[in-house]
Amino acid sequence: MDDFFEENPSLFLIDLQVSEAGQIVVIMDGDEGITVQDCVNASRKVEHNLDPEEDFSIEVTSAGVSSPLVNIRQYRKNIGREIEVFMANGRKNSGQLIQIQEEEIVLLQKIREPKPIGKGKITVEKKLTIPFTEINKTIVTLKFN
Predict the structure, then answer these.
(1) Is 144 helix (H, G, I), strand (E, B) or coil?
(2) Which residues contact 72 (CB under 8 A, 6 or more apart)?
(3) CA distance 6 to 10
(4) Tens digits of per-residue pLDDT, 77-135?
(5) What pLDDT was estimated at residue 69?
(6) What DSSP letter does each residue of 7-65 carry, written as one string?
(7) What whole-number distance in Å separates Cα of residue 10 and Cα of residue 139?
(8) Per-residue pLDDT tens for 22-31?
């Protein structure tokens, strides 16, 4: 599989599973997304490297819309999108992903706070930096207008 991704540098492996029953599942993603042809090409590459006498099945798929982000490249391709970050301590943070650094992400959050003077609340924007070590799971929030 490594040579497939070397030949297609905008694509990257998310997960590869091989069961004892001969079922092979490849989950991949791409910096600009995945096409059906990308999945077909990956499947052919896997099949080409297997013994034709063996009984196997191959499933090649892209990471689903609701799949958690597991690779820093997935975070990068989602800069500017709304995400939910489920923390290791059980809390949840949400906001717009605005920056990726080597060991952390930065969210832009819109928060309702009491007015400095008078009654009522105002919406303010705050940046929140979250280290990858504190993240349990991150998903992209889908917005339907």
Answers:
(1) coil
(2) 100
(3) 9
(4) 999 999 999 999 999 999 999 999 989 999 999 998 888 888 889 999 999 999 999 99
(5) 94
(6) HSTTEEEEEEEE-TTSEEEEEEEEBTB--HHHHHHHHHHHHHTS-TTS--EEEEEEPPT
(7) 21
(8) 899 999 999 9
Residue showing tokens 């929030």: 141
Q: Which two three-digit tokens encode residue 73?
A: 């490249």
How far apart CA 97 and CA 108 sit, in angstroms, is 6
* CA-wise closest residue to 74 among 3, 14, 7, 143: 14
Structure confidence at residue 40 (pLDDT): 93
Question: Which of 31, 36, 35 has its CA nearest to residue 11?
Answer: 31
